[in-house]
Specification:
By secondary structure, the protein is an alpha/beta fold. The chain folds into 3 domains: 105 residues, Tumour Suppressor Smad4; 154 residues, 3-Layer(aba) Sandwich (Rossmann fold), CATH 3.40.50.300; 53 residues. It is 26% helix and 22% strand. The strands form 4 sheets. The protein has a 6-stranded antiparallel β-sheet with strand order 2-1-12-11-8-9, with no helix packed on it. It has a 6-stranded mixed β-sheet with strand order 4-5-3-6-7-10, with no helix packed on it.
Length: 362
């Protein structure tokens, strides 16, 4: 096999596969078999063993696939589900890995490789057979409950504004959008209300050494920390008018200038904003600039409803908690919970369910 171009060998971590691109459980696979009709099925096993045979045969119960590839030597491959959990348990971040079980590589998107994490849209060639892992349909939401969050929006550079009461899941949704976006950089969460007014600018844009009293070291800032990734600016309604102006200028050209610096740097970052209150009301109160408000609304805008207005969501959360924690709540308790106002929303509900699990001994 000397002289073959190898590409996409096994990466050390799953981070580049987690998200929209990586093939996960219940994704579809299409088998385009030599001199056979195409077969489709969903990936729902932890391992599929692929071996040569004179004729095509498939046994999904035993996860065995026999492919006719007489031009290749007797050689096996496998598709295996790999988990990023330290406990070794498969979860929503688990992704499928395709690998050779010997000295013979396979072709993935025209390049030879011995093992590679599968991505949606990949095609793997073994002899005259092709295994294709299609992308999801673009009209389907990638984030359950948010039908407008399609693949096109999630994978774009467009900014997103989330409004909702505390505990409605704004941070969880922002992180999910980042994971599904396929962006290779970090997800950086900055809660603007957690810093004093004098420190917020430095936290966002960074500073150089000696820029102000106490700046004994240089700081990159959240924007550059999230380069090629996603910056989630939480509690954007707490930003001062002056910093709204500076952030507005950054949104024009994505040039970031650290406090005390002479030069600016270009940042490739996707911005997600969140507010616990209605920004329009803040504009009327004079706390939010009108041009800043309209700039935030120029992207995608989503309102996360409180639990008291979505009792069916309460039931869904409880059912999910039961499955993940191997506990059972009585139907009477669930009906009662669906009638509660839950002012702390999802955060309060999850804390209560966890407490009940501990007190109830499982």
């Amino acid at each position: 096999m000397e002289g073959l171009k190898m590409e996409r060998v096994l990466v050390k971590e799953l981070e580049t596969s987690i998200g929209m691109r990586g093939v996960r459980e219940n994704d579809e696979i299409t088998l385009d078999i030599f001199q056979e009709r195409k077969r489709k099925f969903k990936l729902n096993r932890t391992r599929y063993h692929i071996s040569p045979g004179t004729d095509f045969a498939i046994n999904l119960l035993n996860s065995e696939i026999h492919l006719p590839y007489p031009v290749l030597p007797d050689h096996d491959f496998e598709i295996v589900l790999v988990s990023d959990s330290r406990k070794g348990m498969h979860n929503k971040n688990s992704r499928y890995l395709f690998r050779s079980l010997g000295a013979m590589p396979f072709r993935i998107n025209g390049m030879y490789s011995f093992e590679a994490y599968l991505e949606r849209g990949d095609s793997v060639d073994i002899g005259f057979n092709r295994l294709y892992f299609p992308k999801p349909k673009k009209n389907l939401s990638l984030v359950p409950g948010y039908q407008k969050l399609t693949e096109d929006i999630i994978q774009s550079q467009i900014s997103i504004l989330l409004e909702g009461e505390t505990g409605t899941g704004k941070t969880t949704l922002a992180r999910k959008i980042h994971e599904e976006s396929g962006r290779v950089g970090r997800f950086v969460h900055l809660n603007l209300s957690a810093f004093s007014t004098g420190l917020v600018e430095s936290e966002i844009f960074g500073h150089i050494k000696g820029a102000f009293t106490g700046a004994v070291n240089a700081k990159r800032g959240a924007i550059l920390e999230a380069h090629r990734g996603t910056l989630f600016l939480d509690e954007i309604d707490s930003l001062t008018i002056d910093l709204q102006t500076k952030l507005l200028l950054f949104l024009d050209d994505y040039q970031v200038r650290a406090v005390g610096a002479d030069n600016a740097s270009k940042a490739d970052v996707r911005l997600i904003f969140a507010s616990g209150s209605k920004l329009k009301k803040k504009v009327d109160e004079g706390k939010i600039r009108k041009d800043f408000y309209y700039r935030l609304h120029s992207g995608c805008f989503f309102t996360l409803e409180p639990l008291r207005d979505t009792p069916e969501k309460i039931r869904t959360i409880i059912e999910s908690f039961e499955q993940e924690n191997a506990v059972v709540f009585s139907s009477e308790a669930i009906d009662f919970y669906c009638q509660c106002p839950w002012p702390g929303n999802i955060r309060q509900l999850m804390s209560h369910l966890t407490k009940k699990k501990v007190y109830g001994g499982g």
